[in-house]
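stage 2 :: seqdesign
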């Protein structure tokens, strides 16, 4: 197996040049490891991608691929063991002054996967939504705080009278709306949405997705949308990042990826998308990804731009095949 390139901390300065139009978030050669010694486990390896202001980038892969790990690193829950994450040119991974770290918490919010586990069952909905406002003193007086909370709850399609209730009195979809209200009341610039619809009924999913798109239009929000289902992200994403076992294997604009899936892992995810017609669904052939098709013992693989804004992970010989396949040769 070819050795991975090592990067020094000096390769990742505290600030990089940033101007309007540059990516608002940049993930550069990020490794994330857990444990130490013989029990050390590398969950994410050499991750690289950018997100521009106002776009929705979806991070897609099966369970255990490292999607949530990256999302939690962006909001500074998981530390990076190598590489760096930049927000508007400022390095946000690693140590930061307390004041800057607090401001970052306000600007970058997270919507968690499980609405039941992420809400305090002993707190009223009013307190849950108010908590961030209270911590950051984002109101002049109690009247303004209540107004902000009531606007947040009505914006997500619930009623002000729901504020006196507790999370267990709500359905899963309603709880997820409370989670969204808790995030947007902080007036963030960037939201990490960690599988926000996977715990919901199919009939509720479209409502929550439409709600997220509505906030994006009205407030110019930028999203990293974490999911395992390509059929859902197709309709909300500007670009898709495909991750497998901690390695990013393909990045492309949504329609480009669906028209020309090149990496075999991406093809396997595509083949798992259900077809609405039961007869066609029964007849379709599933494509199963076999990692042993790659031989990286001699040639070192890397994530390469093959044109059309399409990046694929592979060895030089594989990249040539992907390029030929993309051009239909």
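stage 2 :: out
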């Amino acid at each position: 197996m070819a050795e991975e390139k090592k990067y020094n901390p000096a390769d990742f300065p505290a600030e990089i040049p940033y101007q309007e139009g540059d990516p608002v978030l940049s993930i550069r050669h990020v490794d994330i490891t857990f444990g130490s010694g013989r029990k050390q486990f590398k969950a994410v390896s050499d991750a690289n991608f950018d997100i521009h202001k106002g776009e929705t980038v979806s991070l897609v892969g099966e369970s255990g691929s490292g999607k949530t790990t990256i999302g939690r690193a962006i909001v500074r829950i998981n530390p990076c063991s190598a590489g760096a994450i930049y927000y508007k040119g400022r390095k946000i991974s690693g140590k930061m002054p307390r004041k800057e770290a607090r401001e970052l918490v306000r600007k970058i919010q997270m919507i968690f996967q499980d609405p039941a586990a992420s809400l305090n069952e002993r707190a009223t909905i009013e307190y849950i939504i108010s908590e961030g406002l209270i911590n950051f003193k984002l109101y002049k007086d109690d009247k303004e705080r209540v107004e902000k909370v009531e606007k947040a709850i009505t914006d997500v399609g619930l009623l002000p009278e729901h504020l006196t209730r507790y999370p267990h009195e709500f359905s899963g979809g309603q709880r997820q709306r409370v989670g969204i209200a808790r995030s947007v009341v902080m007036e963030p610039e960037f939201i990490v949405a960690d599988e926000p619809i996977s715990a919901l009924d199919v009939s509720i999913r479209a409502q929550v997705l439409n709600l997220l798109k509505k906030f994006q239009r009205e407030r110019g929000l930028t999203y990293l949308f974490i999911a395992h289902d390509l059929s859902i992200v197709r309709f909300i994403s500007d670009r898709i990042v495909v991750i497998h076992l901690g390695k990013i294997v393909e990045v492309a604009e949504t329609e480009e990826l669906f028209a020309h899936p090149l990496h075999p892992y991406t093809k396997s995810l595509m083949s798992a998308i259900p077809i609405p017609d039961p007869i066609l669904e029964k007849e379709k052939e599933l494509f199963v990804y076999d990692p042993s098709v790659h031989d990286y013992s001699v040639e070192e693989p890397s994530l390469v731009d093959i044109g059309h804004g399409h990046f694929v992970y592979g060895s030089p010989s594989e990249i040539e095949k992907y390029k030929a396949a993309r051009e239909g040769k």
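stage 3 :: structure notes
- The domain at 15-326 is CATH 3.40.50.300 (Rossmann fold).
- The two ends are 30 Å apart (CA to CA).
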